[in-house]
Amino acid sequence: MTTQANLETLPRGLNIALAVGFIALAAFPFASSEFYAQMVARMMILGIFAMSLDLLLGVTGLVSLGHAAFFGIAGYALAFLTPQGEPVSLWWTLPVAVGASAAGAFVIGFFVVRTRGIYFIMVTMAFAQMLYYLFFDNKVLGGSDGIYVNFKPDAHLFDLEDKRVFYYFTLGTLLLVYLFLRRLLWSPFGRSLAGVRVNEHRMRAVGYGTFGYKLAAFTLAGALAGLAGYLWAAQTGFVNPELMGFQMSAHAIMMVILGGMGNFAGAIVGAFAFEWLLHWFKDLPEIGGFNAGKHWQLWMGIFIVLAVTFARRGLLGVLASLGARKERSHD
Amino acid sequence: MTEALLSAEHVSKRFGGLAAVSEVSLDLHQGQIHAVIGPNGAGKSTLTNLLSGDLAPTSGAVRLAGLNVTGWSPEKISRAGLGRSYQKTNIFLPFTVWENVRLAAQSRSQHAGRWLHLATGFADTNERAERALELAGLTQRRHAVAATISHGEQRQLEIAMTLATGPRVLLLDEPLAGMGTMEAERMVQLLLRLKAEHAMMLVEHDMDAVFALADQLTVMVNGEVIARGTPAEIRADIGVRAAYLGEEAHP
């Protein structure tokens, strides 16, 4: 694990770029087709998911390879809570679903945060796979086919069935989670998590019960992943075991690394970039009998390798150094 | 004599067949520096780790301010009033000097678990960190990143972080290691200043510093205590001279 967090303090230029990006997201539904607005809403949900993982990966230094478990738990919670024939209220199902993810993360975290390094990676993956097969193998839990969520949650004050309303609800959630995590990063709790990443041994020697800090971070990250999973289930109207699958966890790690770890903005940028690339690679044409689109994972793999090799601080780091160069040339 | 703030009672540590520390007893009193000397591999660092909770003793007991802390975790022992520094510099390298000390001070703040307030805005933590920084003589270097300061300054930072937790007992594992003459002299002055308000154990190879600072000396060889006394008594002890204070005492 690297000890140097990337861009914990965001340069002013980057903050301006992020604000512009936010305005662009707010304007997007007016400038595009419904199909693309849906796709961007999906990217925003994954952005929330990636940020929740960044709290573990980039801030606390815990490489969880099972984070999708908590994404899936809240998604399934919404599926179970939504009746066949009518919608269910957002205002109690959202806290219950997020609470279920948090509870799951607390219980799993209680065992896994005792381990370190490669063992932590292995046990988080093992727990997520256990959950995956629990849902995959049990017909009462939906089995391998999953469960339909026939209605979007009823928010009373606004109508989430309206795709544009859902888009803005997701955008608002993304912004709130981002601002919350940025604030947390510089709080006493956030600084302690950074201390755990850099030198846990020393943290304990000056009197921090690091187990409690790591467990709190793991639980909070699980809860926020659940928030994303709830939105995902509501948007797609469908949950299946793949939500908790290894691929989902691995993709989240790639998003965070691609965008740049430890500052939450990178996680959002990474989620957008990853999803956009995925879409782009899958749409590659057939060239002389070779179906390039079918092999999207190959292109994605090559891209990630190149990005990690040449842009250590991720896409956000590239943006930051472009900004820094521009500032220098103005001097 | 006042009651000891920290006492080790027949503490032993075995690693498989190797007795790293055997039946060591030792008392630390406020206002006194108790130096532990001995050749490499004598078990001095292991003893420090046993007292600080980094290692659990195989047998024996450790008492800290009247509490039996044998087998406690390092964080619990730290909270009970013990601070230690490490032989190999053990700090938060990517953080600034200030953040290193502030984070150490924050561990004693009632606000340590807050998650929506700015970490730098708590007066209790800041004051404690400021005082530790000043004591260690690092106020001028507060904005420097810890990885970029000199080795001597990193040693000072070690001490500052320890002081920021407000300990009553200090275990210092070779605070002078690798320091130049000027830096070493500064450190000796710092330890003298700290002496009055702390009970201190000093593990050190620099014999000039040890004899300048120590009130009590314990000599360890192969995990066992072979001699104990005031600096004058130890100097006079022919056996110790033969075993330790000969050639290898002055590296």
Name of the level-1 CATH class of chain A:
Mainly Alpha
Radius of gyration of chain B: 18 Å
Spatial ordering of strands, largest sheet of chain A: 1-2
Structural class of chain B: alpha/beta
| Main sheet characteristics of chain A | 2 strands, antiparallel
Q: How big a fraction of the residues of chain B is strand?
A: 15-25%
Q: Point out poorly predicted stretches of chain A.
A: none
How does this model look, in words?
The complex is a heterodimer of chains A (331) and B (251). Chain A is mostly helical and 331 residues long. Chain A has a single domain (13-330), classed as ABC transporter involved in vitamin B12 uptake, BtuC (Orthogonal Bundle). In chain A, 72% of the residues lie in helices and 2% in strands. Chain A contains twelve helices and four strands. Chain A has helices at 12-31, 34-60, 68-81, 90-112, 117-137, 163-185, 188-205, 210-236, 246-259, 265-282, 296-310, 314-330; strands spanning 147-148, 238-239, 286-287, 290-291. Chain A has a two-stranded antiparallel sheet. Chain A has a two-stranded antiparallel sheet with strand order 3-4. In chain A, a hairpin with a 2-residue loop joins β3 (286-287) and β4 (290-291). In chain A, α3 packs antiparallel against α4 (90-112). Chain A is globular and about 60 Å long. The mean pLDDT of chain A is 94. With 251 residues, chain B is of the alpha/beta class. Chain B has two domains: 1-81 and 167-251, 3-Layer(aba) Sandwich (Rossmann fold), CATH 3.40.50.300; 91-166, no CATH class. Helix content of chain B is 35%, strand content 24%. Chain B has nine helices and ten strands. Chain B has helices spanning 44-52, 74-79, 97-106, 123-135, 151-164, 181-195, 207-213, 231-236, 238-245; strands at 6-15, 18-28, 33-37, 59-64, 67-68, 82-85, 169-173, 199-203, 216-221, 224-229. In chain B, the strands form two sheets. A six-stranded mixed β-sheet of chain B has the order 6-7-8-3-9-10, with helices on both faces. Chain B has a four-stranded antiparallel β-sheet with strand order 2-1-4-5, with helices on one face.
